[in-house]
Amino acid sequence: MIRFIFLLISLVCSYSFADGNYRKELENFAQKLVFEKYHSQFELETSEKLVLKVAPLDKRINYPYCKTGLVGEIVKNKIKSTTSVKISCLDETPWTNYLRVKVTVLQKAVIATHALSKGQTLNESNITAAYMDKSRIRNGSFISPESLYGTRLKRNLSADKVVKARDICFVCKGDKVIINAVKTGLSIQASGIALGDANVGGTVRVKNSRTQRIVVGTVSDLKKVQVSF
Known about the structure:
single chain; alpha+beta; Type Iii Antifreeze Protein Isoform Hplc 12; SH3 type barrels; 3 domains; five-stranded antiparallel sheet; 17% helix; elongated; disordered N terminus
C-alpha cells in the first residue's frame, strides 16, 4: 500500500513537472515570435537592448501537448508595449490560446550615482552608465560617462536621475577657458573668461584675458572655445 502511494505521488509530480515545462515552452514560443517580429520591423541602436517578458500562463489550466506543431501569429500583426500572441494547435482536438508579451526597449544613459548639488564637477565617483526604459528618457541624454568628466552641474540632481544636456555646462560662466582663434592656415591660442554657459556645439561670449576684448565662439571641448576671424 505504501509503495502504491509513493508511485501515485511520483506520477502526479512527473505530470505536474511535464505540464509546467510545456507551459514554459508555449511562453518561449510566444516570446520568440515577438522577438523575430520586432527585429523585422525595427533596428536597435548599439546603445539599446530589447527586453521581452511573457505574462505566465494560468497554472490551473491544462495545455495539451501539440503533436502537429504550434502555429503562432502576432495579433493585428503589430508590435506594441504589450503585444498579444495567438498560439494554435491543429491536432484532432484543436485549441487556441492567447499570451501577452511586454515589450520594453532599454537605452543606455548616464545617471547620477547619488544626490548631486548645483556646481558640482562630474567624475567617475558620481556618475555612471545604466540601462533605462527608453520611453522615460527624453532628448539630450548621454551614453558615455567619460564624455562628461570635468563638466559642472547647473542644477541639483537626485540619485539615479538621468543627466541631460540642460543639466550641465562644458563651459560655465566664470570658467578660465582656452580660446582657439582660427583663420585659414593659421591658429592662435589665448586664455579667456567665459561670460556664459554652453555645451559642445553651442556659442558663448568670452573675454580675452590679455586684450579684454569680448568675442563669441563655439564650444569645441571642455573649457575650450573656437573663434573664427
